[in-house]
């Protein structure tokens, strides 16, 4: 049974916007810090953005600062990634993840405990 399910990916033109959602089971959503990663074909997963459980701290990859915004609704067990001013180089499979650490910013994929199945984002030029 999937514990993290992403949605919201799709095809968009350069400069467009998408909002990704990640719904988690209640049991793991309360585990701690959540994040978004992305993966290009043949490459390792790359950190995009992270937010602590309380929402008090966030951190972004330099490549998305000012364009992407991470948020979470703890009442809905949902993590979001608002992506604006999309570029062709944002084309990738996007994954959400949870690590069992509270109020700690974590950017290494190897530290995350749970992963979703991924959602494809394609930005056309």
Number of strands: 11
Low-confidence stretches: none
Helicity range: under 10%
Mean pLDDT: 94
Radius of gyration over C-alpha positions, nearest whole angstrom: 13 Å
| Bulk shape | globular
Distance between the termini: 37 Å
Summarize the structure.
Helices cover 3% and strands 46% of the residues. The protein contains 1 helix and 11 strands.
Report what the structure shows.
The protein has 1 helix and 11 strands. The termini are far apart. Strands 2, 4, 5, 6, 9, 10 and 11 form a 7-stranded mixed β-sheet that branches. Strands 1-3-8-7 form a 4-stranded antiparallel β-sheet. With about 120 residues, the chain is mainly β. The longest helix is centred in the first third of the chain and has 4 residues, at about 25-30.
Which labels suit this protein?
globular, four-stranded antiparallel beta sheet, seven-stranded mixed beta sheet, 125 residues, mainly beta, 11 strands
């Amino acid at each position: 049974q999937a514990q993290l399910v992403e949605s919201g990916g799709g095809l968009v033109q350069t400069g467009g916007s998408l909002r990704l959602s990640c719904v988690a089971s209640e049991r793991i959503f309360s585990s701690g810090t959540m994040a978004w990663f992305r993966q290009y074909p043949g490459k390792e997963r790359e950190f995009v953005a992270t937010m602590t459980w309380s929402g008090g701290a966030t951190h972004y990859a330099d490549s998305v600062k000012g364009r992407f915004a991470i948020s979470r609704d703890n009442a809905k067990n949902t993590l979001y990634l608002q992506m604006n001013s999309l570029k062709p180089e944002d084309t990738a499979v996007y994954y959400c993840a949870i690590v069992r650490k509270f109020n700690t910013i974590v950017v290494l994929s190897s530290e995350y405990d749970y992963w979703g199945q991924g959602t494809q984002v394609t930005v056309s030029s």
